[in-house]
Every structure is written in C-alpha cells, then in structure tokens.
Write a structure and sequence with these properties.
This protein has about 120 residues and is α+β, with helices and mostly antiparallel strands. It has 2 domains: about 70 residues; about 50 residues, no CATH class. It has 2 helices and 4 strands. A two-stranded antiparallel ribbon has the order 1-2. A two-stranded antiparallel ribbon has the order 3-4. The chain starts with a helix and ends in a 14-residue tail after the last strand.
Length: about 120
C-alpha cells in the first residue's frame, strides 16, 4: 500500500469521526434544551396560581431548580435599612425605645435613595 494514501485515508477517517462526534454533541444539546424547556413549561403550570398571586402583589418571581421551585420576593424590602441611631437593636444601651425606629430596629428609606440592582449606592 502507498503510505501517502494510507495517511490520507486515516486523515479522512479522523475527520469523519470528528464530524460524527460534533453531531452527537449538537444532538445532545438539542435534546437537553428540549428537556429543560419542557421542565420549565411544567414548572410554569405547577406554579401558575402562585405566580399570578405574586404578580398581583408586585413581587419578584425567581424560578429555581430548572423551574421546579420558585423564590418570591417583595421588592419593598429594599426600602428597609437598619436604624443607625440604635444600630438596628430598637433600643439604646439603657433599654429605652429608639425614637427613630420606634423599637423596630429598621427604618424605611425614601424610594429615590434606592439604586437599581447592580448599580450601587451613589
């Protein structure tokens, strides 16, 4: 056999195997994507009533675990901060109720002070 033909044949076989491997990866990605999309749709149906209730309240909905669980968050919590006068304790060291937070330990911030998520405070 001619060594150059053998090398060329080996090269073509390697290219064919590489192409087959790529198709398998593409096929598995597509199958994986279809499964994830299906799971997400199922999760959407399972949590439909809860998601509607959360939207009516203006809450944030964070799908988790491929859509099979949810975290609901009220963005009004962004308006709360620890009281600086009592350090979030609700009272001073003598046990007197803090007049700024009325003993809660938290104060409400003005909405215009809050920055967008990821923007930081200015």
């Amino acid at each position: 056999m001619n060594p150059s033909k053998t090398a060329a044949t080996d090269h073509h076989m390697q290219q064919d195997q590489h192409a087959a491997d790529e198709l398998q990866v593409i096929g598995s990605r597509t199958l994986r994507d279809l499964l994830l999309r299906g799971i997400s749709v199922i999760g959407g149906k399972i949590f439909l009533a809860d998601d509607c209730r959360a939207r009516k309240q203006g809450w944030q909905i964070i799908p988790r675990h491929g859509g099979f669980s949810r975290t609901y968050r009220d963005p009004r919590f962004d308006l709360l901060a620890a009281c600086t006068k009592c350090n979030g304790r609700g009272q001073n060291p003598h046990g007197i109720t803090c007049p700024d937070c009325h003993g809660i330990g938290r104060v409400f911030l003005a909405p215009d002070i809050i920055s967008e998520p990821g923007q930081g405070q200015s």
